[in-house]
Amino acid sequence: MKIIFPTLSACLLLAGTAAASEKCSVPMADWQPREALQTKLEGQGWTVRSIRSEDGCYEAYALNAKGEKVEAYFDPKTFVAVDLKTED
Question: How would you label 18-37 residue by residue, b for 16+ Cβ within 10 Å and e otherwise?
Fold first, then answer.
């Protein structure tokens, strides 16, 4: 049991890291400027609070057109949302 728990913990930790890095795997040379993502989101009625790089993606904190708080991850090349969480 002593050997199984650390091994299982390590596997789960590595699986979580792999899943996060699989969201976006675009070379930096192919990234569009974050200002272009902000312009796109504002065109959709969002109020952007911040955009930063996280796990190979752009991570945006904003209010969407409905006024909901949004934390969203976008592919930095295509600006396709790869993960989106909203709060009221």
Answer: eeeeebbeeeeeebbebeeb
Handedness of CA 17, 22, 23, 25 (dihedral sign): positive
Let me know if domain 4-87 sits in CATH 1.10.510: no
pLDDT tens over the chain, length 88 residues = 455 444 444 444 444 434 444 689 999 999 999 999 999 999 999 999 999 999 999 999 999 999 999 999 999 999 999 999 998 6
